[in-house]
Every structure is written in C-alpha cells, then in structure tokens.
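S.,

Sequence below, as promised.
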Amino acid sequence: MYRTHTCGELNISKVGEIVTLSGWLQRSRDLGGMTFIDLRDRYGITQLVFNMDTNAELCRKARKLGREYVLQVIGTVAERSNKNQKIPTGEIEIIAEKLEILNSSEVPPFTIEDDTDGGDELRMKYRYLDLRRNAVRKNLELRHHMAQEIRNYLSAKKFLEIETPVLIKSTPEGARDFVVPSRMNPGQFYALPQSPQTFKQLLMVGGYDRYFQIVKCFRDEDLRADRQPEFTQIDCEMAFVEQDDILNVFEGLTKNLLLKVKNIEFDGPFPRMPYSEAMEKYGNDKPDIRFGMTLHELTPQVKGSGFVVFDSAEYVGAINAEGCAEYTRKQLDELTDFVKKPQIGAKGLVYVKYLADGTLKSSADKFFDQQALIGWAETLHAQPGDLLLVLAGDRATTLNALSELRLEMGRSLGLMNKEMFAPLWVVDFPLLEWNEDSQRFYAMHHPFTSPCKEDIALIDSDPGAIRANAYDLVINGVEIGGGSIRIHNATLQQKMFTALGFSDEQAREQFGFLMNAFKYGAPPHGGIAFGFDRLVALFSGLDSIRDVIAFPKNNSGRDVMIDSPSTIEEQLLKDLSLEINLKAE
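The prediction came back faster than expected:
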C-alpha cells in the first residue's frame, strides 16, 4: 500500500511504530549531518528526518529532492526534541528508513504556501497547484460540510432531492441565457438554466410537495466578486404552503448551518423588514444591519435656503458617522471623491461637524445657521463628536450613493465584523418595475411571482403599485437567497403575462407547457433559492465566491487553466449548421 497513515494523524501515542506515508515535499532543510523534509498531503504535514551518520546514501538522495516531488517514505515514529505546537503532528517526526520517488516535479510557478507569492491570474492558470494550499482546501472542506448539513436538514424535513434538466428552453426574462445549438434540430437551440424555476413548479403540480436540489445554474452576465457565469443554488419548492411556512423552514435551515458550522446559536425569529423600509433606511434592498448609521431624509428641512444644490434636489439625505467629528479635510476630500465615482454618481458631499463645545461647523455654513444645523442633528440623533454626511440629487441615485457611503464608512471604522452574523428577511417587494427605455414593466423577481392577495385587484388598473408575495434572506449585506409564493391559477398567470407586455401568442410560446399544467389542479406553492457559493463565502469570511469554487472563471468569464471558451473545429460548426460572423465594432 502507498500509505498506512495520512500526514495529519500521527501523534505521540504512535512513537515506535513503523509507518508508511505518501505526499508532496512542502519544504526541505539541510542542517549539517541531518536533512529535514516536511511531507504534505490533504490532511496535514509530517516532518521526516534523514541522518547522514546512520544512512548516508538515503540522506544524499533526500537532499536532491525538490519542492512538490511526490514521495513515499517508510520509517519509525519518534518523539521530536524541538516540538512544533502549531500543527497536530508537531510532537513527532519520522526517522526515514526507505524513500521512494513516486514522481518528480518542475519548480512550481508560485510557492504552495498559505501566504503565496502567486497573483490571482497566475494561481487561476495553475489552479491544480493552488488547490494544494491550505487556504483553498479549507474552503472546499467547508463547502462539503455545509452541503452535507443542508442535505441532512432538508431530508429530515421530508424534502426529496430531484434533478431537473440542464438543456432547456430559452426565455426572454432575466439575464442572458447561455445557449447550446442542437445538431439533431438544425437552427434550434437549447438554453442552460438560469434556475430550475419552471421545473420545480411542475414538480409541485406532479405532487412532490417538498423538493430540493443543489444545482448548477448559468447566467451570461458581467462578472463581479459575487458572480460567476456558472454558480450553485440550493433550490427548493414546497406545496400547500404560505409565506410564513417557507420562511420558518429556511430560517431553520440557516440557524442549523450557523450552529453546526459556526457554533453560533440564534434565539428568536430573524427580523423582517419591508422593502420600502430597507430602501428608506439603508438605500438598498440588502441592508447590512451589523451597524447603525441609517439614512435620514432632510428634504423638507433644507428647501428654500437659497442653496441651489439642495433647492433643486428631489431628495436630500444624510448619515451620522458617530465619533468622526475629528475627520481632517483630507479625509473629507477622500469621501467626496468616493461618492463622485461614476458608479456611485453623487455630485458632491456636504458635511456637518458637531464639535465638542456644542457648536456645529458645516461646509454649507453660508446658507444654514446654527439653529438649522441643530435641527439636522436632532433628525439624525447626533451628539457632540459626530459627523453628518449629506448628499442631494434625484432620489434613486442619492439613496444608492448614501448606501455606498454608509458601507464605506462601516468598512473604514471597522464596523463589519466578519465573525458576526446579522440575518433578516426583506419582504413586500414591488411585483413589477418600469423600464423607461422599453416602456414596459418587468418582473422584479420572475413572471411566476404571486401578488400579495390584497393587491391583486390592482393588476389591471395600477400594476406598478402591486406588492409581491416575495422575500429575500439577507446576511451581513449579502443577498443569500430569495423566493416567492408562486401564481398557481392560470387566469392570474395570464394577467401577469399581460402586465409584462406578453401577447397571448408569446406567452403560449414561452410558457405554454406551464400554463397547460396549471389547468390540471396545480396546488398553492412557493419556494426559495439560496446562493450556495455566496453562503459558503460568507461563512468563510471571504468577499469573493471565486475562492470557494474549485475551478472558477476569471473576471472576463475565462477559464485560463484550460483556455476556455475557445474556437471549435470547422466540421463541428457544419454539423451544427452554424457559421461564425465576427463583425468589427
């Protein structure tokens, strides 16, 4: 056999035993008559000892080995004289008696260490080497552990794990589809699923009242830290349920994961916050509630002052950065530059320092006296020593800018403790959102989301005012999951398609199979999908989901390790009835 033990399990109780280990050479040290090698596998590191006095030939052989050589060593477990308490095997070492080189290695392009000298792109190109690092291994072990806990929890709740198709029909809603040409049906295409949405609803029609799947999904969209073109969802659906039933089950799943994986116990239910409140207080629909510094509107208080920036603004709002009145002009200028970034969009920033002597100093002193500034301070519950940061403009842009400014202050002040978990449900989203360019409504979630019962009557007269029976789970400012109660009535579903601008023919072409299924006794149902990659990254304390995926794509959507996407052979194009036409832009 190649090994009797792993490199992470031997301890002082094994002293005197003859063992066989296999693994990679992590590092080697020659100290006069002795050579020490750290042998590494997935489970840990064990020190090997080669002695020139007792076995010179073996020692000379060991000194010729390079990093990442694959070795098999037979030897005796001995107690170390200089113990290393930082690793589980640090009390012992192996006195080597036989050494076999299972494979040699070229010098790796970066060090296989926790603090590696390899940049992101280099590590992605040699991902199979990067996977040997402890930091990456721990992330993938955590991912495995969480997947097991999810399956155990949902199975205990009588959910069935059922696979759904990967080659499906393209639909016009949501992000762009990845498409796959069909050789057997020339000129026609499959799409890769952005989610198994319609299939899980069909499973409810089929009588499988509790379904889940840890499933790959695909979206052709621009990438960022929490996006990949292929990602993993914990996809779930339940029949004969209302919103509270779903929230209770999946709040339980989240609490179970926090307890089993992070040893964090939550008492009581997660807070529930209406979408309108999240936008008003946090400027976005995924509020980070680990810290305060909520948004406050000042519009009525500042109008008519002669300050054109405020007088011409649709919305004026502010946050209170507690204890920051000592910010320097340089720091304030940096904040101004931050909010003026193109992706944030503010035109400038007004500040108010609440000084220790009780006076207030503002960059808009020319237009507002002390009494007016005191009114601002009272609105924001400010105290001496605080700093008010004020933005103005159109409502949507200013709320977003205040949200980004709040998060930036939270980061700079150390208020985002990654070991703290602050979950909440955001509920009562708008059902539809209007797009000025196309002059039509789009579903904020998807076309199968049910309106709140009390708002259904508005679907013909005022569709923009309808609230959705939808919900998102947010943890630490990250949208972990979202779902809704679905429309299960064919008549209401047809009205939804009409509100979205679908003709009867378009609706039948895209979703006829689902509408037909609803004619045969569809039960009330709803569901949720968690972003599994995001959830693992959150539990790992990481900002990027790429770090918890074994073989991720880079920010351009490329796999630089296998050089994909790539061109295909001309014959395959002919088989698929395709021609390539690259037009110069």
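Residues 33 and 53 are 7 Å apart (CA to CA).

Coffee later?
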